[in-house]
Amino acid sequence: QVQLVESGGGVVQPGRSLRLSCAASGFTFSNYVMHWVRQAPGKGLEWVAVISYDGSNKYYADSVKGRFTISRDNSKNTLFLQMNSLRADDTTIYYCAKGRAIQLWSPLDYWGQGTLVTVSS
Amino acid sequence: QSALTQPASVSGSPGQSITISCTGTSSDVGSYNLVSWYQQHPGKAPKFLIYEGSKRPSGVSNRFSGSRSGNTASLTISGLQAEDEADYYCCSYTGTSTSYNYVFGTGTKVTVL
Cβ(B12)–Cβ(B81) under 8 Å? Predict the structure, then answer.
């Protein structure tokens, strides 16, 4: 069965960096687009970024553009989110999610359990 | 990109049907039949319920159905059950020829009375 396990969250000071990982299993990772979505505690979902199946195309929400970088290692079935210049409003749970198909517009069908990032001095 | 608008809360009694609306614009819901719906129980990851407006993934109860008209998508839950009490989010693709983006709804808390 599809499993997505995020890691790398924690407490970080404003302005610093953090790298999240998402280990995927139970499907052919290299055949699907992958996303990062975040959710502040008690708040709604916010889409963050998407990466194509081969890593050649990446798109971001305006709120993170220029600060966050999505990437993937298909040889290790792992998705990454490099987060730089972190701000207090980046404090959220970060979910990785699998796209339903290879197309970039595919809906998100499986989600990990999330990893909490807290930006605080 | 502004969030899609959903009612903050909807309630119903067991066995009843409820409908959750999701209002966007001609740049998202109105332009693409690429609306999906998710159910989220407290402390859990979202669960995929509906895609392309009205299609159900395998394993999802047929009590959940979706539709779209103009700039508004809707999720209907029929035969409401206690386990349906959760938060529900819509999501629409909203891209251009050079950009791919997604926008989620504000979320709706469903209460089973």
Answer: no
pLDDT truncated to tens, each residue of chain A (121 aa)? 999 999 999 999 999 999 999 999 999 999 999 999 999 988 999 999 999 999 999 999 999 999 999 999 999 999 999 999 999 999 999 999 999 999 888 999 999 999 999 999 9
CA separation for the pair A61, A47 (Å, rounded): 7
Q: What is the residue type of A52?
A: S
Q: Does B53 touch chain A (CB under 8 A)?
A: no
Q: Residues 58 to 87 of B: which have CB under 8 A from any A CB?
A: none
Q: How close does chain A come to B12, measured CA to CA in Å? A: 22
Q: Are A47 and B91 a contacting pair at CB < 8 A?
A: yes
Task: Please give the DSSP secondary-structure letter assigned to residue A107.
Answer: P
- Looking at B1-113, list the stretches that DSSP marks H as alpha helix, in order from N- to C-terminal side: none
Q: Nearest 10 degrees: CA dihedral of B63, B64, B68, B74?
A: 100
What residues in B contact A108, CB-CB < 8 Å?
36, 38, 46, 48, 91, 102
